[in-house]
Specification:
Elements: E1 2-7, H1 14-25, E2 28-31, H2 32-41, H3 48-56, H4 62-75, E3 81-85, H5 91-103, E4 107-115, H6 118-126, E5 128-130, E6 137-139, H7 166-180, H8 182-189, E7 193-197, H9 202-212
Parallel strand pairs: 1-3, 1-4, 2-3, 4-7
Antiparallel strand pairs: 5-6
Helix pairs in contact: 1-9, 4-5
The protein binds adenosine monophosphate.
The site of adenosine monophosphate (AMP) has 19 residues, from helix 2 and helix 3.
Length: about 210
C-alpha cells in the first residue's frame, strides 16, 4: 500500500483536491472528518464529547483517529493508494502513523502542503456547502454548484457543515496553527515534504499538487 498526505489549513482545498485526484488516479480518498461525521450519523460513537468537539472546531482525541487508521490499514487492499485528507493533524498522530505504516507495509510516499494565503482561506470558509450524500464540496462564490443548493455529482441537497459557523471557523484556524501546522516542518525533516500553491482554482490546484506527488 502507498499513502500520500495532504496538509493545509481548513479551507486550503485538501478535500476538493483529494477527491478529484483520487478519481483521476484510481486512489482512495481518506477523509477522517467524513469518517467521523459518518460515525456520528450512524450512532456508532457513544461519546457525546466527540460531536461537541467537532461542532466547536476542536480536534477529537488522537487515540480515536489512530484506532480508525489502524482498522483502515487492516481492511484496505494491499495494492491500494490512499490519499489522506485531514490526517495526521498532530505530531503524535504523525508518529503513530509511521508505526502503523511500518506494521502494515504502507509506504508514506509524500506529504503535500497545500499553501493558500490567509485572506483567501477566510473567504473560502465563509460560503462552503457540502453534499451529505457523496462528500462533494462547493462554494457559493468560488465553486458554485450548477443548480443552486443541489449537488452536481449526485443530486442531493447541499448543506452547510455544523463547524462552518464563524466561531468554529475561528477555532479551527487556531487549532490548525497550534497543532497541525508544525507537521510541515516535521515532514520536511523526514525528507517527505512537497509544497503546492492552492490559491488558484480547484483545477489549477489539482494540477500543481499532482505535479509534486
Ligand atoms: P475535516 O472534515 O477534515 O475538516 O474535519 C472535521 C473535524 O473532524 C475536525 O475539525 C475535527 O474535529 C475532526 N477531525 C478530523 N480529522 C481529525 C484528526 N486527524 N484528528 C483530530 N480530529 C479530527
Amino acid at each position: 500500500m502507498k499513502a500520500f498526505i495532504f496538509l493545509g489549513a481548513p479551507g486550503a482545498g485538501k478535500g476538493t483536491a483529494a477527491a478529484r485526484i483520487a478519481e483521476k488516479t484510481n486512489a482512495r480518498h481518506v477523509s477522517t472528518g467524513a469518517m467521523l461525521r459518518g460515525i456520528l450519523e450512524n450512532g456508532a460513537s457513544r461519546d457525546p464529547a466527540v460531536k461537541s468537539r467537532m461542532n466547536k472546531g476542536e480536534l477529537v482525541p488522537d487515540s480515536m483517529l489512530i484506532d480508525m487508521i489502524g482498522e483502515l490499514f487492516k481492511s484496505a487492499d494491499s495494492d491500494a493508494t490512499l490519499i489522506f485528507d485531514g490526517f495526521p493533524r498532530t505530531v503524535p498522530q504523525a508518529e503513530a502513523l509511521e508505526k502503523l505504516a511500518a506494521e502494515h507495509s504502507v509506504e508514506i510516499v509524500k506529504a503535500v502542503s497545500i499553501e493558500v494565503p490567509e485572506e483567501i482561506i477566510l473567504k473560502r470558509l465563509g460560503g462552503r456547502q457540502v453534499c451529505p450524500a457523496c462528500g462533494a464540496v462547493f462554494h457559493v462564490k468560488t465553486l458554485p454548484s450548477k443548480k443552486e443548493g443541489i449537488c452536481d455529482t449526485c443530486g442531493a441537497a447541499l448543506v452547510v457543515r455544523n463547524d462552518d459557523t464563524p466561531e468554529a471557523i475561528k477555532n479551527r484556524l487556531v487549532v490548525h496553527a497550534e497543532k497541525t501546522a508544525p507537521l510541515v516542518g516535521w515532514y520536511e525533516k523526514a525528507g517527505k515534504l512537497a509544497r503546492a500553491d492552492g490559491s488558484g482554482s480547484a483545477d489549477d490546484a489539482v494540477e500543481k499538487i499532482m505535479a509534486v506527488m
